[in-house]
Amino acid sequence: MTNQHLNFDTLSQQVISTLQADIETLLNHANLPSPLHEACHYAMTGQGKKVRPLLVASGYLTVLASSQAATIDTLPLFDDNCRRAMLAVEFLHTYSLIHDDLPCMDDDDLRRGRPTCHIKFGEATALLAGDVLQTLAFEALSADLPGFAPISNDKAASLLTLFAPRARRMVSGQMLDLNAENKQVSQPQLEAIHRDKTGALIEAAVLMGAACADANDTQYQALTSFASNVGLAFQVQDDILDVTSSTDTLGKPTGSDEGLNKSTYVKLMGVEAATDYAKSLFLAATQAIDDNFDKNSSLIDLAQWLWQRQK
């Protein structure tokens, strides 16, 4: 067995380059009319960190590295099913960002350092772009696509079973978040919001990557614990960065949570306590991997990289 630990920067570069090519493939396959195609392409090709596709790839490689037959030092790093899962989470995430930025939601005019989709193309086109990106996320997991081997019915069903309910939870979490504006909420209530709004898609990403590598039940349990803790930590970090970072650094407006009077971890517990809480969540996430997988897991590298966002 070759169980070579993949440098995280190398993994990130491979994910981004693979994803960029596959995004072009899926958008061209969709054959969308103008200006819908241009709006979708604009939204999908911004300079995002690609955290969710990285979680898919890291979940896949973490499980693969535990196999007695695993080899992770040759290209391509990802099989076609893993590429499909990376596409699905990135398309779904981008749709959610387009809709979150709309005037009827958070009313933001900057995303990833550029004008938001509705500022660039108009509100109606942006709304439709979000709609079609959501449907393409599901198509990525099931349809025959150029440049991809056909996906088996069993594998498509297993991926959709992990993906669909968490896509629905993401939307439910957004509604709960809107309901909590201008209200005082408890920590359990706030966590219920963000385990759905932010955490659900992060869970889907990790678990779909694991499914592509045929994870067993014990591995799924460990990865679910990892994803649950990272998903919540990611949101706590976002709340902190909204008050401690700059618009230029984040690529989106800061201070918007306070402007909308949203319920946040900073508002609930303060920056210092929220930072300590995020750290404890990251530690719990990495412990779940340490206890069940190789110590050099790509998921641990990813969790450490995410923690560094805050510093």
Automatic annotation (TrEMBL):
Signal peptide: none annotated. One of its GO terms (cellular component) is cytoplasm. SUPFAM superfamilies: Terpenoid synthases. The keyword Glycosyltransferase does not apply. It comes from the Bacteria. Coiled coil: none annotated. Belongs to the FPP/GGPP synthase family. This is Polyprenyl synthetase family protein. It comes from Psychrobacter sanguinis.
